[in-house]
Amino acid sequence: MFSYRAAALALIGLVLLLPGKAFSQEQLSLEQAIRIGLQNNYDIQIAGRQEAISQNNVTLGNAGILPNIDGRASRTFSENNSRQEFNTGPDRVREGASSNNISYGVNLNWVIFDGLGMFINLERLKTLEKSGELFTKQTVENTVADIIASYYEVARQSSKIKAIQDAIAISEARAEIAQAQYEVGVSAKVEILRAQVDYNADRSELLLQEEVLQNAKINLNQLLGRNPDIDFEVTDSIVVDETVNYSLAANNLQAANPLLQRLQLERQLAHLDIRSVRARRFPTVTAQSAYNFSRSEAEPLNEFQARFNQNRGYNYGLSLNVPIFNGFNLNRQAQNARINLETASLELQREENRLQADLARAYSQYTNRLQLLELEESNVKLAQENAEIALERYRLGILTAIELREAQRNELVASNRLIDIQFQAKSAEIELKRLSSTLLQENQQ
């Protein structure tokens, strides 16, 4: 009963292997794809370097807590010619009088009080460091979600090729049957031609589907940060996790979503801006100290000029800078800081609302596709059985070619519909886990 179909499938498989490319195909698992992506993806690498910068910025010196110490040194040489004329006495002429000057010193400036602004700056730098870590985490989670979705997109398109190959097997068997019936005189040549037309149409559909599959592979290679021409075959099929809990996902969204956590830090930064403006209203006390040394040696141009001069010493003290009036700029800055705080709070609320809506939509699609999945799995079995029976009835001459073609197309449509629903259910599952920040946890286990 199934000899035609089995033979046709074997022939199609042989034809597809002829170029020799499949023999060298990489076998790529989902775990391998994620590992390659985490190592090579450009977005992750860029985010990691930005995080490193934010970590490097967390220093006492960058916050303004440590003193500034500057050193200076100089040495100069000069040669002078002098001519002096007097009302009485002879003129004085001096040529080639040389001098040698050396000076050096060290200056220290240390802000010891600025209304606690330096400590606010340090807290700001630490907050920005946390924000950088969360941005990296968000980038990694989004990239992993994209890699998983792209990986299963390749699996989906590969499954559709298999479905088309099954349809081609029926077309191949139908053409052989039509040829055999024509040779024994029980069928007209038009049946052979019609069978060949349908077979060519199926082959054309297969070629188009192979292009779709190739583009899906290119997209995945791009996410993995590697050569888009690398050919591979995915080894993991689409299996939907049917245990995702909405309440748990909603709780994780509030507690662990990196975007919401970053926006909470943005609100903290707005609070720090308000405190920073307040700190500028306080006086600034700066400790200052210096040590200076200078020495000069010169050939005197007259008897009143010293041949050697040297000075050295140190000084220290405090300076006080009190802000009295700066054109109401501090008031303006304080108002803007409060507005920024309100804006940060609104942005947090907006994103919470948007993410909750995204979660609700994803869960609605998830539950709907799970119901459809069970229905379509049953429907595919029926369509396959119907196509097999139709092919056998056509071989026996009790079913028309049109009826066989309809059964064949129904099987293909049912298979593609099941494949699409599997992918949609998996996509909804991935989105739920991405929003609830559990995607990395599961793939690290």
TrEMBL record:
Q: Where in the cell is it found?
A: Cell outer membrane
Q: Report the SUPFAM superfamilies cross-referenced here.
A: Outer membrane efflux proteins (OEP)
MF terms per GO, please? efflux transmembrane transporter activity; porin activity
* UniProt keyword annotations, A-Z: Cell outer membrane, Coiled coil, Membrane, Transmembrane, Transmembrane beta strand, Transport
Question: What would be one Pfam family of this protein?
Answer: OEP
Q: Does the keyword Cell division apply?
A: no
GO cellular component entries: cell outer membrane; efflux pump complex
Q: What is its main location?
A: membrane
Coiled coil residues, start to end? 331-393
The record's similarity note reads: Belongs to the outer membrane factor (OMF) (TC 1.B.17) family.
- How is this protein named in the record? Outer membrane protein TolC
Taxon lineage: Bacteria, Pseudomonadati, Bacteroidota, Cytophagia, Cytophagales
